[in-house]
Structure prediction request, 251 residues.
Amino acid sequence: MTARTALVTGASRGIGEAIVRRLAAAGCRVVLLARSEAAILALAEEVGGLAVAADLSDRASIAEAIARIEGAVAGIDILVNNAGIAIGAPIGRTDDATFDRVMQINVSAPYALSRAFLPGMAERGWGRVVNIASLAGLTGQAYTSAYCTSKHALVGMTRALALEVARAGVTVNAVCPGWVETDMAAEAVARIARSTGRSLEAAKGSLEGMSPQGRLVTADEVAALVAMLCSEEAAAIHGQAIPVDGGTVMK
Ligand code: NAD
Prediction:
């Protein structure tokens, strides 16, 4: 993937950081996007990439980041919409502001970034978009309706855009992880422990037990699939929403 430039959102930690490392190791020049520059400067330096700060909950900040990226690189060949937030709460305790924030970060930001960079990929005749959705984009899950709504929307966006650019040398896919060993999962474990009175260990065990493999997925296992989807060989994998979940989707 040398000579390809990749933009990865939510690059500061977790799955995003693992994707940055995989794509850089494959030879990409990586543009790292995160809320604060401080959170990504060290990783950007380590992989020889460019750090761009943007708050994806803010449309003006997204527009500024797009302008900055356009001024700094010739074009984005690979867009990985990874940044996302998860809210765990029953619908009665999910107010409009929370719902709107989840939809803005998880759906509207990937839409705006796709609108900014997908046409250039199609013009140049090569591109990859990978949206990090979730198993919650393929199946219903209780007490996380805003998140589940947003991830289903992201899968729908993936399919629609895939058809739009199908003949232009560009692929658009979604990756749908089950529970992944990151801060997001740790926060969910803490929430479950708080609301059920169970120990952290027991709460984590309940997430592990959802998978037939009896474990959480690692961030690098998700990143490995993303890197594969971005490769030349994956040119015919298109418009898919691929679970990386230890088989949870079968249950
Ligand atoms: P994480 O919370 O560890 O990291 C999320 C990243 O998104 C961080 O870099 C954070 O800075 C960034 N981000 C959040 N809000 C932002 C904002 N307003 N502006 C800019 N960046 C922002 O999460 P993770 O576990 O690495 O998750 C990455 C993606 O994978 C998310 O889209 C998440 O929904 C999805 N996912 C995670 C899991 C899991 O169990 N961890 C499972 C399925 C899907």
